[in-house]
Each structure stands twice: as structure tokens, then as C-alpha cells.
Amino acid sequence: xxxxxxxxxxxxxxxxxxxxxxxxxxxxxxxxxxxxxxxxxxxxxxxxxxxxxxxxxxxxxxxxxxxxxxxxxxxxxxxxxxxxxxxxxxxxxxxxxxxxxxxxxxxxxxxxxxxxxxxxxxxxxxxxxxxxxxxxxxxxxxxxxxxxxxxxxxxxxxxxxxxxxxxxxxxxxxxxxxxxxxxxxxxxxxxxxxxxxxxxxxxxxxxxxxxxxxxxxxxxxxxxxxxxxxxxxxxxxxxxxxxxxxxxxxxxxxxxxxxxxxxxxxxxxxxxxxxxxxxxxxxxxxxxxxxxxxxxxxxxxxxxxxxxxxxxxxxxxxxxxxxxxxxxxxxxxxxxxxxxxxxxxxxxxxxxxxxxxxxxxxxxxxxxxxxxxxxxxxxxxxxxxxxxxxxxxxxxxxxxxxxxxxxxxxxxxxxxxxxxxxxxxxxxxxxxxxxxxxxxxxxxxxxxxxxxxxxxxxxxxxxxxxxxxxxxxxxxxxxxxxxxxxxxxxxxxxxxxxxxxxxxxxxxxxxxxxxxxxxxxxxxxxxxxxxxxxxxx
Length: 537
Fold this sequence. Notes:
Layout: H1 2-17, E1 19-20, E2 36-37, H2 39-45, H3 62-75, H4 86-92, E3 116-119, E4 128-133, H5 143-161, E5 164-167, E6 176-181, E7 199-201, E8 214-217, H6 231-242, H7 268-279, E9 319-322, E10 345-349, E11 352-357, E12 360-364, E13 376-377, H8 378-381, E14 394-397, E15 403-407, E16 410-414, E17 419-420, E18 441-444, E19 451-455, E20 458-462, E21 474-475, H9 476-479, E22 489-492, E23 498-502, E24 505-510, E25 515-516, E26 522-523, H10 531-535
Parallel strand pairs: 4-5, 4-6, 6-8
Antiparallel strand pairs: 1-2, 3-9, 7-8, 10-11, 11-12, 12-13, 14-15, 15-16, 16-17, 18-19, 19-20, 20-21, 22-23, 23-24, 24-25, 24-26
Protein name: Peptidase metallopeptidase domain-containing protein
GO molecular function, one term: zinc ion binding
Keywords: Calcium, Hydrolase, Metal-binding, Metalloprotease, Protease, Repeat, Signal, Zinc, Zymogen
């Protein structure tokens, strides 16, 4: 009797959840059927319950329904209450990817795993991937605006995958074809109008010539203002699918199934996935630039439709990788080890902030926004780090995208895939005195795009060849008014602001007046830079 009551309540709740999708008035190639979304459809569409054969119905047990609901809550990163609470109702009405999270209700081993990513298909067999924009929405100012956002999205993945993305002309063949469409738009997975499915994408080599393609729903609220959907965020997610990734239950991952707003920076799991899929195996033995159109690579599968959407192949291999938490000698709050200012350096890399202490690294999206799961060992963030590197004195990203790390009197180049360690790479080779044991900091100043090296009470400006200019060093106090000697670090943020750090304090440097701003220095551990330090007190 209890089970009957449970099912009656479930059906009534499901009916109250149904949402009608109106048919737009504009002309279409094929008029889409009116549709609705109910709870059982949601469970089946996203893999939480098995799909019955055509023209049949399946009777599910109370236990299977309860387990499905718990898994929905897990993939939505909300409390697993097993109840139809308000958080669950809100989750089920949130735009999301149409890619199944499970296959016929079968778990992929993610329970209680704090870190995981899923590879949904094979990756590209080429490391040079071409793409083209077939059309664009007139909700954006022009084609160039859309192309700029797409390039930034591809660059986001390129930074950590070693892949090179090249835009080609509209008449040229391309691995990834990008377009905007409405309802029935040329494949067998029509869009649903405004408000739910934002886009969908296909895994590499799936569905014949559609493999890798990305489709955006023209009817969504695209635009350039804060009130509009963020094209960059959706594009980064869809490109993850086009590169072979499935969904993640980690809310910090760009592959999280539900749209979260402006959030385009890769999470730690996304970076690990790129390393696993493209970096660790090196380039393919056969780097066939035209292989994307060959039938030998075709896989049959099921497309995903969503706001951040992907195409899933039900026959694809679902590989779950788990990273265990790093053991920091039993410290209860390893993230707070830097609160007193005891760290080697702060750097801006890939538009994010990194703090280095010993062989550990803290990663921030922006000042004060520590990425979940950090700190982590340096070797986990930058795989292949040379064993002789015991700490990072300074680091910076060059204009060509490579990262230079300084440790003691040597420096090392990291290109996102491998490290370069040459005997000649010492401080003397870039024009510093031979007896210089290390440097304090290095950065590219936003005021003039020049590179500066700091050590003690002196600084050097580097020329285009990466060596110190002839009339340097010069005294810090003569040019950087108010800046202390022997600084820990100096950086420039994306907004152009310049900050220096020393002994647990930070300074805001005015790039125009060349003075420290009034009210500085300020205590680092009690500021917006490290809010986790304040919260722990």
C-alpha cells in the first residue's frame, strides 16, 4: 500500500512539473511537435532509468525511483536528500545539457569521488584541428564578435591540451563546424525553442560528417550584456564535448551538466582530462589531417541536446579517472598555509592567479576565489616538472603563451605539454650577475608590455631577445616609488592593476603616477585576496 501511495504522489508531482514548449510564430523548415518534459522522461532521457522498448511502458520499483532521484541530486551537486525538495525542483527546471549522465541507470563509479572526469569518446587523431563558423546569430553585433569568442574558447582548451586550433574559410573542409539553428536544423535532434536546451555538440568521429560539430540554439537569449547568456561559457563547454569529454559532477568543472552563468575557466579535472586524453600519450603515430570525414572513424551514438550540450555515444567507452586527495602531513587546513605570507611567489598564468610554496600550488580564478581542491602538488598542476625543482621563486607567462619558471639560479620553459631544461638556462645567460643565487620576481608590466626582473633593491628590463638591457640594473627606489626592496612578487592583473607582495602585505602600484596608492600596504591574510584565511579565524 505504501508503494502505491508513493507512486501516486510521484505521478501527481510529475504532472505538476510538466512544461509546455510553445511553437514559435516564425517560419520554420519543419514545424516541431509540441512537447513536454515530465519526471519520468527526465529520468529516462538522462540515463537514470532504463528506456522501455517502443510502444511499451515499464513499471519501476520504488527503490529504482528513489535511487534515480539520489543520482540526479548527485549530478546536480545538491544535497542528496532523496526527496522532491525545493532544491531538486529548481535543479530540474534549470537549463542543462541533453547528454545522458548515466547509461540505463548504471553508475560510472562516481559515488563519493571528490574528483573525477569522464572521457566520452576517443580524442582527435590529429593535433591540428580546423574549425569554421558556418553562420552566426544576428543577436550579436557582427560575425567578428562571435569569431573572437570562439577563438577565446578554443584558446582555453589549447592552453592545456597541446592542440592547435585553426580557423578556415567557409568553403573549406573542417574538423569542427559551428552554426546557429532553430528547431529542426539539419540533424535528427531538433532544438526546443527558448529556455532549456542551449546547444549540442558531437564527439570526434561520431555521426559521420557531424563528428565534432557544435550547434547553438538560435532561439536562446544570446547577446552581449550581463542579462544575456554568455556565449563564451557555453562554447567552452560544447568544445569539451567536441574534444571527447562527457559530463562531470564537479561543479567547478566546465563540463558540469547544468548552466551556471559566466564560468569559462577550466577546472582542475578538465585539465587532468586533457592531459589524459591528449598530452600523456604524445602525438598520434598517424597525424591524418583529413581523417575527420572518413567512414572508418564513424561511431553510432546518441546526441545530447542542452543549454550546455553534448553529443553522447552510448557505445562510447566511459572512462572514469579519480584523483585522490593529496596528503599534506595531516594539516586540517592546508589552504591556509599561505595566510601569514610565507610563500615563494605569486604569478598570473592563463589569466588566473597562482601562489607557489615549496612544491605546492594554490590556484585562484581571481583574487579571493580559490579553486576547489587546491592546493595541489606542483607536479599535478604542471605534469612532468623536473625533479630538481623543489620550489618556484618566480614564474610568468610570455606573450607567446609559454610559461617560464625560475628556481634558484636556473629557469625552465613549460609549453603546456613538456618542460625544457637546458644547461645554458641559468640567470647569467639572461644578463644577470653570475653570482645571483635566484630572483625575487618577474612580470610583464601592463603599462608598456615590457618584462621586468626584480632582485634585492635592483631591477632589470629585458629586451626582445629575453636578456637584460645594457643600461640595467637600476635601483627600485629610483623608479618604483614606495615599492620595498626584496619583494616576494609583483604581478599585473587582467584589468591592468599592478600589485606587489612582501612579508604578508600587498601594495597597489599606480601605473600612471608611479607611486604606491594611499592606504597601502595592507595585510594579505585579512583581505579579499585570501578570504579563506579570514573565515578560518
